[in-house]
Amino acid sequence: VQLQAFGGGFVQAGGSLRLACAVTGDLFSHEVMGWYRQRPGKDRELVAISTLGDFANYAASVKGRFTISRNNAKNTLELQMNRLEPEDTAVYYCMSTVEGKPYFGQGTLVTVSS
Questions:
Q1: Separation between Cα atoms, residue 2 and residue 92, nearest integer Å
Q2: What average pLDDT values come out for the chain (114 residues) when binned by 10 residues?
Q3: d(Cα 87, Cα 33) in Å, to the nearest integer?
């Protein structure tokens, strides 16, 4: 299983970015997919998850601003990030579980300036 995240970049506070994670295999084989992030000097933390059946859940700090979605046509997991804050600056990683085993992709850096 391979995952590759892209779409990070530099944005001013209040702006938006859309991350995408390209995955191998049909998305229906990926039971739980999600986005994690690691902020400077912090541990990696869960940002959002998506399960088969369209259940989604978010960290309290991003709820209402971020939206996770699966794009079956493109075989990607996406994260729409709106109203970005400097505290959202982090390396973002996509994750997927296949047959119960978790896989992480390489991260993409998001930098939000104040």
A1: 16
A2: 94 98 84 95 97 92 97 92 98 94 94 96
A3: 23
